Amino acid sequence: MNSPTIRDQTILVTGGAGFIGSHITDALVPHNDVRVLDDFSTGHRRNLPDEVRTIEGDIGDPIALQEAARGVDIIFHQAALVSVTQSVDDPRTSNRTNLDSTVLILEQARQEDARVVLASSAAIYGHPNELPVSERTPPDPTSPYGIQKLAIDQYARLYDELYDLPAVALRYFNVYGPRQQGPYSGVISTFLEQAQEGDPLTIDGDGEQTRDFVHVSDVVRANLLAATTDRTGEAYNIGTGESATILELAEIIREVTDSNSTIVHEPPRAGDVRHSQADISKASKQLGFEPRISLEAGIQSLGTAEPIESAVDDEVELPSIDSRG
Ligand code: NAD
Ligand code: UD1
Q: Fewer CB within 10 A of the end CB, N or C, for the chain?
């Protein structure tokens, strides 16, 4: 299924200057009136297209939020403190941003009668009792971040049920792609930077932990599908259904970048999830979501700056993933 087109809507993207939010913004800007609320703590102005109205502020500030959300039809809520390690080090700060402020956003959405698509996470599954994990697998978070995402994921369902607010939670697995960067960003961007600098790739623990890596263009399409579905009040896994170990990932990155970087092992991370792999059949059946970019093709395009379009069928309409950043 091709990307649904969303037209003539007034839309707020929280965290729209960040990695995932900026790609969602790019996909919406051509046909809609798009605003971004961001405090630029990890996001960058250079990620934003000129057409966007930018409100610089904290999602926890009711005045900034009110201004940003006035008259909106849809809110894509992406702003968060995304680092699992940061949440282990400072649970109060991450709780305030990830959980308290999300409740403010849901309340604001009620006032505006706006639909909400929010970023949940595979981190809610923690140490699951089965793999791949489906939406019915009991959550068992291993970090404050996982607990916060579980709470907002459940809030989305409850707001839909209690207040008739159309809300969808997307449980992203490990997202990667252009514009992911910074000290608290994901392992693929860290390894790529290390490989390109000729520095050792730093593996936390034995490297046998697994992740389901999904390209940001697939995540953007999932957001557009979630914003147009009738099946609201639901949470959906957004991954590929495939997983790789961190050691395998390091090897792919060394190959693609033709790097001589060595591998060093650091102590394992506190709160780290051991294994992660999505069962995406619910998103496939109910949203029509199918991932299109394999891990190898996605890393190849990042490592060589080849446009990702060359890795997929010409017929397929992809959200724009050009890299301004
Ligand atoms: P990111 O750090 O690139 O983007 C987050 C954005 O939110 C940044 O622009 C940042 O400046 C902004 N922000 C942070 N705190 C804010 C605040 N208090 N007020 C206003 N703006 C604030 O991260 P990302 O990887 O693009 O993540 C986007 C969303 O997806 C997050 O909710 C994250 O938890 C979720 N998620 C990400 C992944 C992943 O692999 N990247 C996986 C699962 C879920
Ligand atoms: C990531 C996201 C989180 C999201 C979750 C969903 C980021 C920063 N975190 O968490 O927001 O909710 O996916 O599954 O995007 N690793 C190394 N060396 C490094 C960096 C990481 O070995 O230099 C390892 C980590 O120990 C971990 C794995 O790689 O086992 C993935 O780490 P990371 O990219 O930080 O993501 P998650 O913690 O899975």
A: N
Rounded distance from Cα 178 to ligand 1 centre (Å): 14
If one residue of 13, 42, 82, 218 were mutated to test the ligand 1 pocket, choosing by the most ligand atoms within 8 A of its CB, it would be 82
Structure tokens at 109: 């959405």
Distances (CA, A) of 240 to 67, 292, 299: 37, 8, 14
Q: Is the pLDDT of residue 225 over 60?
A: yes
Between the CA of 50 and the centroid of ligand 1 the distance, in Å, is 21
Fold of 10-311: Rossmann fold (3.40.50)
pLDDT of res. 325: 38
Of the candidates 23, 120, 35, 22, the one whose C-alpha atom is nearest the C-alpha of residue 75 is 35
Alpha helices by DSSP H, listed for 70-130, are 84-89, 91-95, 101-112
